[in-house]
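In full, the data:

***
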Amino acid sequence: MRLSALLIGTMALGFGPALAQDAPKPDPSHITFTLPKDIQWKRGEGMDQAVIFGDPGKPGLYGLLIRWKAGHFSRPHFHNTDRYVHVISGTWWVSSSDVYDPAKTYPMPAGSVVTDLANQVHYDGAKDTDALLELVGMGPVKTTPAEKK
């Protein structure tokens, strides 16, 4: 009996993706979505960014995906509003110093939840591997450089 249940369960897992392809797309007046292949990334030298909802330059809630490329960091800065970060993959490295030194950053592995507090200096980036973040905040957000030389 247990073997039958296991075989049925295994077969169901194998047919799951095929069955999902036959399912109707959700009604966009009920559920909106963007598939990974359709996310509009703004590519940069050290970081890629995609706005997934809202607009960080306008009043209201916004969400971003940020992909820090390995070996790239921001410089010390602060924002005028709190920003909430979930590390989706990789390791994100952060510092609360106003002196730039990537060797003195602290690791935030995948699954970490971080809050960049308003008007508090920090910098961040990725060391050996890319790091993918989801960031949520309230706009308009203003970023101010804060590096001590």
